[in-house]
Specification:
By secondary structure, this protein is mostly helical. It is globular, with a radius of gyration of 13 Å. 46% of the residues lie in helices and 0% in strands. The protein is built from three helices and no strands. The relative contact order is 0.17. This is DNA helicase. It comes from Anisodus tanguticus.
């Protein structure tokens, strides 16, 4: 899909895709091997957790304080 603006959801999803394709994850250590993983019971909560982790690891907590305090959102 073409858009002129990238949302936070787009950026986080791109990072998760790249990280899951790598043998050793540099940002999201707890992801494990994408080929041997299961779907999360609560995908929205899992996304919010991964979003917080990525923002913390990239030192972007100050840029998105609402994500850290509210537990994240899928709205981007």
């Amino acid at each position: 899909m073409f858009r002129n603006e990238v949302s936070r959801l787009d950026a986080i999803t791109a990072i998760l895709c790249i990280e899951s394709s790598m043998t050793t994850s540099t940002i999201v250590d707890s992801m494990g091997n994408a080929l041997h993983s299961n779907f999360a019971e609560s995908p929205d909560q899992e996304y919010a957790k991964q979003e917080r982790l990525i923002l913390e690891r990239l030192s972007l907590r100050d840029e998105f304080p609402e994500v850290i305090s509210t537990g994240g959102s899928i709205c981007g």
